[in-house]
């Protein structure tokens, strides 16, 4: 049965959710490209079937994400595809368009359609967290036996892995957030949150990557500031409980960043080189100067879509085989698709960010929580990619998958609230996050109240929380009169 009580599309949506879980589970793994392709293709067919059933009024409707998101997305895809006409290497551009844009667009559709209820959203979040536990655990287990980030079956390399950690980090919020979106309640969940956070920090330190700490700090600062402003009354009532763990985390991030910077100076630079000198001698500085000169030759159109379009030119001019692309997601887009493509990408990210701001400002606290997660996700990803470009392959798809899932569930909540009328649910200013309540029709709201009461009385384990959430969604509309 579907989330709105229509049994005719229930099995189809369950199959889609299952396929989406498989897609999400295999994304971080290297060496399983065939499995990723098959799982995403299967999920795409199921998502299109759900959309066709919804269009034929045989299933629950799937709301549009709105023109503010669809227009820049469509124009960006069209402009990138058009770059095939003037590409420096047309065959490479065509291959990258298939590998990147086609699969990324499919990923967006799959996860936007799949996130049709709180059960689906929580299931996808648990999949990300389970993958994070596996990937960080593997890194720590493999570390004593050599390079734990060798490109192969377990990971996609150091840079890709560090970016994966940044993408997964905002999802940890659901472990400390209350139901219906979060899992806060049982002590085991809090222990799991602490352990996962520790695993993430330990695995990030193994990468010797400096930007990962700045990106994680951006995520923590964004989430803390937004949550503090939204639920300031709760913060003022228990400031140590709210701000203490955050302060400890930020201090730990600062210490680990300094340690990673010193280690990089010791290993990759002459003796007695200071951390400041390593930054001044960073090979990306001459790379960006050279890239700026290349951009000035084709400022409007770029050289054609593809991250490593000018890899031979860059490697030859700079004498460094690792400098095969621009090492900045925005400079890279400018180099590939010109100022037009860059402007369209920024417009798309801005539109998504503005939608998260709308979520954050909603009267629905569950929706506001998603706004916090979404804005933290954007902040971390952008900061991490100021010195690299991982809007490609598995990390690019994970980025779009997480955004699509957040938007898919959030926009459905907005529409449900509008359909129920403005008076169905309001919150007092500063209402604490612990009082989250779904803005659903009366029967669904009553069901969620009973589920929340069960959480409070019995501190349900996660498996039973998911069962209760699914039961609340599937309860017929006349169940409570």
Summed over residues and divided by their number, the pLDDT gives a mean of 84
Strand content: under 5%
Count every beta strand, where a strand is a DSSP E run of 2 or more residues.
0
Structural Rg: 23 Å
Q: Please trace the helix and strand order, writing H or E for each element.
A: HHHHHHHHHHHHHHHHHHH
Distance between the termini: 20 Å
Low-confidence stretches: 1-5, 422-448, 476-481
How many independent structural domains? 1
Shape descriptor reads globular
Number of helical stretches of at least 4 residues: 19
The profile of the biggest β sheet is: none
Helical/strand content category: mainly alpha
Helix content: 55-70%
Verbal overview:
- By secondary structure, this protein is mainly α.
- It has one domain (7-474).
- 70% of the residues lie in helices and 0% in strands.
- It contains 19 helices and no strands.
- It has helices at 10-26, 33-55, 67-82, 90-114, 118-142, 158-168, 173-176, 187-206, 211-230, 232-237, 239-268, 275-280, 284-297, 311-318, 329-360, 365-384, 393-420, 442-458, 462-474.
- The chain is globular, with a radius of gyration of 23 Å.
- It starts with 9 loop residues before the first helix and ends in a 7-residue tail after the last helix.
- 44% of the residues are buried.
- Residues 1-5, 422-448 and 476-481 have low confidence and may be disordered.
């Amino acid at each position: 049965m579907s989330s709105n009580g229509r049994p005719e599309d229930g099995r189809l949506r369950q199959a889609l959710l299952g396929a989406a879980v498989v897609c999400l589970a295999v994304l971080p793994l290297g060496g399983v490209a065939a499995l990723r392709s098959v799982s995403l293709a299967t999920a795409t067919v199921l998502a299109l079937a759900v959309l066709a059933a919804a269009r034929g009024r045989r299933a629950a409707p799937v709301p549009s994400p709105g023109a503010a998101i669809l227009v820049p997305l469509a124009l960006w895809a069209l402009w990138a595809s058009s770059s095939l006409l003037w590409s420096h290497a047309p065959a490479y551009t065509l291959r990258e368009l298939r590998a990147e844009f086609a699969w990324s667009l499919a990923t967006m559709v799959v996860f936007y359609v799949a996130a049709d209820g709180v059960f689906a959203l929580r299931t996808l979040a648990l999949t990300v967290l389970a993958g994070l536990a596996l990937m960080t655990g593997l890194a720590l287990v493999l570390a004593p036996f050599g390079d734990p980030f060798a490109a192969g079956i377990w990971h996609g390399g150091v840079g890709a892995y560090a970016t994966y950690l940044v993408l997964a980090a905002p999802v940890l919020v659901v472990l400390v957030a209350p139901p219906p979106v979060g899992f806060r309640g049982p002590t085991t969940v809090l222990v799991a949150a602490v352990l996962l956070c520790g695993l993430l920090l330990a695995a990030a330190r193994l990468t010797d990557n400096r930007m990962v700490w700045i990106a994680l700090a951006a995520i923590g600062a964004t989430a803390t500031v937004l949550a503090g402003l939204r639920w300031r009354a709760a913060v003022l009532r228990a400031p140590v409980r709210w701000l203490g763990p955050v302060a400890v985390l930020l201090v730990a991030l600062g210490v680990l960043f300094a340690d990673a910077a010193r280690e990089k100076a010791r290993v990759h630079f002459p003796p007695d080189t200071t951390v400041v000198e390593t930054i001044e001698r960073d090979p990306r500085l001459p790379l960006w100067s050279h890239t700026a000169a290349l951009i000035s030759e084709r400022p409007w159109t770029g050289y054609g879509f593809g991250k490593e379009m000018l890899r031979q030119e860059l490697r030859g001019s700079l004498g460094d085989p690792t400098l095969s692309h621009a090492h900045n997601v925005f400079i890279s887009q400018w180099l590939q698709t010109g100022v037009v493509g860059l402007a369209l990408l920024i417009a798309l990210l801005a539109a998504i960010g503005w939608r998260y701001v709308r979520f954050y400002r909603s009267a629905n606290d569950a929706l506001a929580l998603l706004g916090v997660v979404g804005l933290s996700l954007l902040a971390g990803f952008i900061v991490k990619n100021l010195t690299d470009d991982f809007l490609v392959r598995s990390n690019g798809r994970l980025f779009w998958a997480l955004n699509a899932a957040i938007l898919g569930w959030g926009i459905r909540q907005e529409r449900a609230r509008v359909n129920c009328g403005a008076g169905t649910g309001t919150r007092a200013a500063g209402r604490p996050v612990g009082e989250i309540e779904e803005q659903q029709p009366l029967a669904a709201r009553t069901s969620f109240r009973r589920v929340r009461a069960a959480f409070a009385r019995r501190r349900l384990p996660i498996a039973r929380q998911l069962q209760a959430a699914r039961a609340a969604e599937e309860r017929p509309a006349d169940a409570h009169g």
